[in-house]
């Protein structure tokens, strides 16, 4: 199976589903990196480069949405979620406008660019804003489904996309899969413990489940692609049926997937839990695979966390 | 502008000023200074220029106005009420719990408000987006925006101006309410802006300097803007902060403060006298 980065799947999906003249796409001088360049080639009239001015891009996107447009605004996650945070909050989310912030180069798998460009806070920041829905797909096939669905769902979305080419979890780009925003997908059944992952940590978690199987541990793996609204039912069910949960994200352990799952558990059916992610530290320069290893985000790390958590299970 | 129409608009403006004072007094908070300095601009746009329909605020093809200096919501609400977008009685609910009239403009709750604003610098960007879509759709609507001079200290304003010139948005006309004051004092003391005219010109806009209280000059500038092709127009409107209420004029302290009962009565007396003088005029 060919690997593909979720950012590339995003660009392809914009072309595939963006025929509607209401769809417009904005970029901030990164169109070749975010892959909105694919849309630009197909529909040059509806692609606008806003230059290196992300705050303006977000409020401009909001103004366009007031004219009945379906607006996609793309740049790197660090700029979309942080430099332009307040315009996203006040211009897009407060008036509940139809803008899809599709942010690429999230997490440490950005690699060599280093910490300044490795956004590990966007999930927690974006999910704290009223009206904003937050999605973090793990592969090309699911990214395609996300883009199609958000194009047809009014209101603001934040979609977290990666730079790195990743294996397909659901198949390849273009495969029709069972995928709904807000509904977590159980990738692998299991009854001893549940690993809830998002983004490219889903692939690592599937590999971790294989490692655990060798030790006789039967791990469930859930792709929690929608961080908000989170699938509380799937979390509660996992707690009830497996009694132990590990969350895994290429993101700070504070406030993102782990935080969201912990909130649900604390208010519904608490169980032993561990958050795997960036331990409140900035990333570094290096090759993506080296960095995932350095910061403890590999299948081996996840399997070890699962074993520690299982040991605490009553 | 013919005399009859000018008189009608002056009466519109006097009523807008009264509604501004009414709203801010009722709320016991809000921003009278910059609302009063922008009154003639609101008046010309809502009382004369814009193709808008109070019975159908989202009508296809309507002209659009974005209040980038969102804190001057009292002025915008007053103009909308005076134009009939909602009953004038709503004004006394301004800033109060349960009212449609939020402290800063909210497009979801107020008929006729095109964009939620309040965080400075963002409204002009939204206006740029509206103008870009007007071009894309080959629509004939025009987009207007109103900035404060202090607001120009926000970097995003210059990002927006850069984009507006790049995309040759000659369907966009922005005003700067150049009253020279901001919360902490004179703009020149807080953070000097130098020559606003030169800066905006250098960003590729057509620039017109006017007296922002002259309806004739506002009209002439807006016409000139319409005739200017290939670039957006900035109308730098020299104004007096607090215009129309003697004790508020040119006082930074009235940027974001409500009058007490005595001050309210004095302000209304002055505005009523001005209105009466207009109405008796032949």
Describe the global form of chain B.
globular
Oligomer: heterodimer
* Annotated CATH topology of chain B: Rossmann fold
Q: Report the count of strand segments of chain A.
A: 14
Strand order of the largest sheet of chain A: 3-2-4-5-7-6-12
SSE-based structural type of chain B: alpha/beta
- Proportion of residues in extended strands of chain A: 15-25%
Specify the helix fraction band of chain A: 25-40%
Going by CATH, what is the homologous superfamily of the largest domain in chain A? Answer: Thiamin diphosphate (ThDP)-binding fold, Pyr/PP domains
CATH class of the largest domain in chain A: Alpha Beta
Order of helices and strands of chain B: HHHEHHEHEEEHHEHEH
Give the rounded overall mean pLDDT of chain B.
Answer: 97
The largest sheet of chain B is:
5 strands, parallel
| N→C terminal distance of chain B | 17 Å
Radius of gyration of chain B (CA) equals 18 Å
Strand content of chain B: 5-15%
Estimate the mean pLDDT confidence of chain A.
98
Number of strands of chain B: 7
Number of helices of chain B: 10
* CATH level 1 class label of chain B: Alpha Beta
Order of helices and strands of chain A: EHEHHEHEHHEHEHEEEEHEEHEHEHH
Describe this structure in words.
- The complex is a heterodimer of chains A (314) and B (282).
- Chain A is α/β, with parallel strands linked by helices and 314 residues long.
- Chain A is built from 13 helices and 14 strands.
- Helix content of chain B is 44%, strand content 12%.
- Chain B has helices at 3-27, 32-37, 39-49, 73-83, 122-136, 155-166, 187-191, 196-202, 215-227, 261-280; strands at 64-67, 143-148, 172-178, 181-182, 185-186, 206-211, 233-238.
- Chain B has a 5-stranded parallel sheet, with helices on both faces.
- In chain B, strand 2, helix 6 (155-166) and strand 3 (172-178) form a beta-alpha-beta unit.
- The longest helix of chain B is centred in the N-terminal third of the chain and has 25 residues, at 3-27.
- The radius of gyration of chain B is 18 Å and the shape is globular.
- Chain B starts with a helix and ends with a helix.
- The chains are: A alpha/beta (314), B alpha/beta (282).
- The A-B interface holds A 24, 45-46, 48, 50-51, 53, 55-56, 58-67, 69, 86-87, 90-91, 94-96 and B 64, 66, 106-108, 114-116, 118-119, 121-123, 125-130, 132-134, 136-137, 155-156, 159-160, 162-163, 166-167.
């Amino acid at each position: 199976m060919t690997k593909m980065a979720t950012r590339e799947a995003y660009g392809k999906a914009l072309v595939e589903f963006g025929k509607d003249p209401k769809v417009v796409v904005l970029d901030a001088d990164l169109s070749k990196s975010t892959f909105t360049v694919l849309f630009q080639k197909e529909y040059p009239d509806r692609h606008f480069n806003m230059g290196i001015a992300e705050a303006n891009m977000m409020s401009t996107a909001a103004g366009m949405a007031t004219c009945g447009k379906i607006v996609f605004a793309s740049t790197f996650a660090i700029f979309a979620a942080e430099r332009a945070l307040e315009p996203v909050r006040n211009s897009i989310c407060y008036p509940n406008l139809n803008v899809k912030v599709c942010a690429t180069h999230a997490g440490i798998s950005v690699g060599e660019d280093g910490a300044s460009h490795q956004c590990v806070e966007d999930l927690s920041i974006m999910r704290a804003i009223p009206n904003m829905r937050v999605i973090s797909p793990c592969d090309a096939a699911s990214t395609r489904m996300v883009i199609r669905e958000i194009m047809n769902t009014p209101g603001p979305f934040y979609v977290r996309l990666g730079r790195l080419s990743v294996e397909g979890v659901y198949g390849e780009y273009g495969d029709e899969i069972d995928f709904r925003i807000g509904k977590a997908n159980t990738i692998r059944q299991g009854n001893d413990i549940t690993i809830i992952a998002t983004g490219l940590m889903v692939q690592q978690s599937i590999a971790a489940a294989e490692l655990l199987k060798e030790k006789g541990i039967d791990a469930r793996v859930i792709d929690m692609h929608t961080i908000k609204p989170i699938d509380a039912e799937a979390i509660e069910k996992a707690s009830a049926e497996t009694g132990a949960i590990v969350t895994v994200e290429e993101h700070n352990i504070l406030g993102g997937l782990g935080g969201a799952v912990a909130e649900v558990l604390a208010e519904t059916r608490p169980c032993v839990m561990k958050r795997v992610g960036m331990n409140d530290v900035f990333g570094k320069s290096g090759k993506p695979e080296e960095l995932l290893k350095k910061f403890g985000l590999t299948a081996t790390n996840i399997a070890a966390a699962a074993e520690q958590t299982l040991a605490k299970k009553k | 502008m013919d005399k009859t129409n000018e008189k009608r608009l002056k009466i519109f403006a006097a009523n807008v000023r009264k509604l501004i004072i009414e709203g801010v007094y009722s709320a016991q908070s809000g921003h009278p200074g910059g609302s009063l300095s922008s009154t003639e601009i609101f008046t010309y746009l809502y009382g004369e220029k814009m193709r808008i329909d109070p019975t159908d605020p989202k009508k296809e093809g309507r002209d659009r106005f974005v209040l980038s200096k969102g804190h001057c919501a009292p002025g915008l609400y007053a103009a909308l009420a005076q134009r009939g977008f909602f009953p004038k009685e709503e004004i006394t609910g301004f800033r109060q719990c349960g009212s449609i009239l939020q402290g800063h403009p909210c497009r979801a709750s107020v008929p006729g408000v095109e964009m939620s604003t309040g965080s400075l610098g963002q409204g002009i960007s939204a206006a740029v987006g509206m103008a870009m879509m007007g071009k894309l759709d080959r629509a004939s609507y025009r987009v207007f925006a109103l900035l404060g001079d202090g607001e120009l200290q926000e970097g995003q304003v210059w990002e927006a101006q850069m984009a507006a010139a790049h995309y040759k948005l000659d369907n966009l006309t922005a005003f700067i309410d150049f009253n020279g004051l901001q919360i902490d004092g004179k703009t020149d003391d807080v953070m000097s802006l130098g020559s606003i005219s030169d800066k905006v010109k250098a960003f590729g806009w057509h620039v017109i300097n006017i007296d922002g209280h002259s309806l004739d000059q506002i009209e002439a500038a807006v016409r000139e803007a319409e005739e200017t092709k290939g670039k957006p127009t900035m109308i730098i409107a020299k104004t007096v902060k607090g215009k129309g209420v003697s004790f508020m004029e040119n006082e930074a302290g009235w940027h974001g403060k409500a009058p007490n009962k005595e001050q309210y009565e004095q302000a209304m007396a002055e505005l009523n006298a001005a209105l009466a003088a207009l109405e008796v005029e032949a």
